[in-house]
Amino acid sequence: MVADSNARRLGQTVAGPLAGADFESFLGALRVVPVVEIACADDAVPLARTLLEAGLPCAEITFRTAAAPQAIAAVVAEVPEVRVGAGTVLNVAQAEAALAAGAGFLVSPGFDAAVVGLALERGVPIVPGVCTPTEVGLALEHGLSVVKLFPAEAAGGVPYLRALAAPFGGVRFVPTGGISADNLPAYLAVGQVLACGGSWMVKKQLIADHDFATIGRLAAEARRIADAARPAAGSRGDER
Ligand code: 3PG
After folding, report:
1. pLDDT for 9 beyond 80
2. What is the CATH number of domain 2-229?
3. Pick from 155, 209, 222, 230: CA 20 to 30 A from residue 197's CA?
4. Atom nearest to 109 CA in ligand 1
5. Nearest-CA residue for atom 9 of ligand 1
6. Tens digits of per-residue pLDDT, 29-46?
């Protein structure tokens, strides 16, 4: 089965959150994190099955909609091969709701010390958003070395990322915001990029339309682009 072998290759244990280093390895092998905004929790399971079959067994379900906790819980219960996390976690209340729903990781658009503290206390990986050297430094102070560059394209794209990353050799980035099939290879060519996040293959309208065929096609295409851009999973790739 394609889905089974993908899950095996990505080292899925699917029982509870991965420890920090294992989560970093998982993201490095995955290279593309689908960022999901879902209006109706009932759509979460077919979406997760589609992503699994396409070779992207992961979903960051954002707290941009009220359906997020229920959608996360549904995927955890029914498609355990897909590692599901919570995105757009803006505060501790949302973090608590995400963890109660079974989220295996947390992502936030900016750096919120209280949310980071809660995630560390509970042993759940967190990828906080950063956009400046000061914010990267804040993440390091909290013991985190994997951060989301957000909003990546609007902030200046690959040239900005390279300049921001240069002083922080031990930090790995997950650029998100404006990533597409077109610019994915350029981001993955940056050695300090662990993975890229994006919604382009799981657009909310595609989900609302139940157009899982298109989602599956775009997700498989993303997977192929990632494989071509960085064949050795998790490799630091080229020069910075
Ligand atoms: C996010 O919530 O992380 C971003 O909005 C995703 O960005 P994108 O929609 O431009 O991919």
Report:
1. no
2. 3.20.20.70
3. 209
4. 3
5. 199
6. 999 999 999 999 999 999
